[in-house]
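Q: How do we represent a protein-ligand complex in a form that can be generated token by token?
A: Start from the inputs.
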Amino acid sequence: MPDDLINRDLDRVLAPIACANGLPNKHYTDPATIARENRAVLEHQWAALAVAADVPENGDAKPIEFLGQPLLLLRDDAGLVRVFFNICRHRGMILVDAPRKIQGAIRCPYHSWCYGKDGRLVATPHVGGPGQNQHEGIVRATLGLREVRSHIWRDVVFINLSGDAPDFEVVHEAALTRWAEFENWLHHGGENSRFTLM
Ligand code: FES
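Then emit the structure tokens for the protein with FE2/S2 (inorganic) cluster bound:
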């Protein structure tokens, strides 16, 4: 559905109650409308991706697809939970295809480029020819994994895929203020925060 028609329908929803219309059915089914909503709400704002408890130990990694983008949730060697694009900077191979613990570096399954858990490109085997692990055209410092802006609140990992949203604390100031009184007695992320469906 074209943007001008979407805007027209939204204007009618927001009109004074006496003349307002409900949202037409196609807003719930039209792929273009859903794509626009995804961009506005999930890509350019803070969206909940996972919980930090999904990667409880250093080195734990979990691939997650979000808005069609392959992402990698990872707890690094310092215990920091980070989110990277799960894409090798060489030829775009998916780096981690199933949840697992990373021992040492993240090794690309295609040509074995290796990345530290902090995203740095640390090894480029044979990139300059057999036995030559360096090449003047490959500047490792510029080819680390692309990190997604993230923020953890109450163990929930929020991401801002576009990278241009205001800070999480700014966007959600009212909610954070409201929740402040619960900070001392509500705990998230521990072993009692999960259950398993039988
Ligand atoms: S695609 Fe990853 S090393 Fe080549």
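Residues 88, 90-91, 93, 108, 110-113 surround FE2/S2 (inorganic) cluster (CB under 6 Å). Residues 31-43 form the longest helix (13 residues).
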